[in-house]
Amino acid sequence: MEKMIHPATTIGHVHLIVSNLSRSIRFYCEMIGFQILKQERSIVTLTVDGITPLLVLEEQADAVLKPRGTTGLYHFAILVPDRASLARSLLHLLQKGYPLQGASDHQFSEAVYLADPDGNGIEIYADRPKNEWERTENGEYKGVTKPLDVNGLLVEVGNTPWSGLPSGTRIGHVHLHVANIQEADEFYRNGLGFEATIRMENHALFVSAGGYHHHIGLNTWAGIGAPKPPENAVGLRLFSILLPNQNELKKVAEQLKNIGVTFELAKQTIFVKDPSGNQIQLKVKVKE
Questions:
Q1: Residues 275, 277, 278, 280: is their CA dihedral positive or negative?
Q2: Are 46 and 36 in contact (CB under 8 A)?
Q3: pLDDT tens track, the chain, 288 positions
Q4: Residue 56 · residue 44 · CB < 8 Å
Q5: Boundaries of each VOC domain copy (predicted)?
Q6: Which of 20, 170, 234, 267 is the one with CA 20 to 30 A from 158?
Q7: Phi and psi of 59, rounded to 5°?
């Protein structure tokens, strides 16, 4: 239990490399519903509440598409606070005619899938009440993928119009392509201290803090031994993990040392890459 990450740990923000910043801003504000928090020359920070950064977009002039069969982002997941909010997001996308890649019922959540103009995967989802999440005989959550009851969901829209992502929206999880599940297991469980919640044979692993269904998904669907994408590829620059206090940050640092992982510690923030090259920022959550 000493290695277990603090149950209050959450995902913070996601930082993406994009090829056309203006185009990406339009997409994420007009289609998804973010607001601009801060904008510099080639970087914009997006929010929902006007305070909390959730998504950072950085334009890279020589950006190339992320090659198939490489590690990196599979999708990042935007967690909306309730089913009605998900319904309004879905209806908005349908009315705008934006192409969807899927719509699924995972038993513990309902989700809609799409990609941004650079092909970065996005999930918008709402959780079911935790007391409805089903477990298997070994204590893990049942990971299922069934077709979403779209008509049943859209009934939840009611007379409330879409007005962007609602208050309470956050980044619920990040799902990554990795080269090796065993190496990822060692890093995310023994290094960072997450708990395994769903295993799919030897090709996918889902881990979480505090009994959540998953904060991080890991898969080898791009191929076992998949290489890293080029440095100038669009996709994930990094994502952040928020810890509740400084002692928890120190604990994670010690655990990473114990498994032989090198990292950078700067301004009370850990920067580390997983074995597949996915960069993570661990920091203490700012108290509101």
A1: positive
A2: yes
A3: 458 999 999 999 999 999 999 999 999 999 999 999 999 999 999 999 999 999 999 999 899 999 999 999 999 999 999 999 999 999 999 999 999 999 999 999 999 999 999 999 999 999 999 999 999 999 999 989 999 999 999 999 989 999 999 999 999 999 999 999 999 999 999 999 999 999 998 899 999 999 999 999 999 999 999 999 999 999 999 999 999 999 999 999 999 999 999 999 988 899 999 999 999 999 999 875
A4: yes
A5: 10-127, 170-285
A6: 170
A7: -80, 135
Nearest-angstrom CA–CA distance, 71 and 222: 7
Which structure tokens are listed for 288?
Answer: 């509101």
Instruction: Specify the amino acid at residue 161.
Output: P
Query: Half-sphere exposure of 102 toward its Cβ, with a 13 Å CA cutoff?
Result: 14
Ordered domains of the chain (ranges, CATH)? 10-284 (3.10.180.10)
- The DSSP line for 132-194 is G--B-TTS-B----EE--HHHHHGGGTTPPP-SSPTT-EEEEEEEE-S-HHHHHIIIIIIS-P
Q: Identify whether the C-beta of residue 259 lies closer than 8 Å to the C-beta of residue 190.
A: yes
Strand spans (E) along the chain = 10-18, 35-39, 43-47, 53-59, 72-79, 102-105, 109-115, 121-127, 146-147, 170-177, 195-200, 204-208, 216-219, 235-243, 264-266, 269-273, 279-284
CB atoms closer than 10 angstroms to residue 95: 9
> Cβ-count burial of 132 within 10 angstroms (0-12 exposed, 13-18 middle, 19+ buried)?
exposed
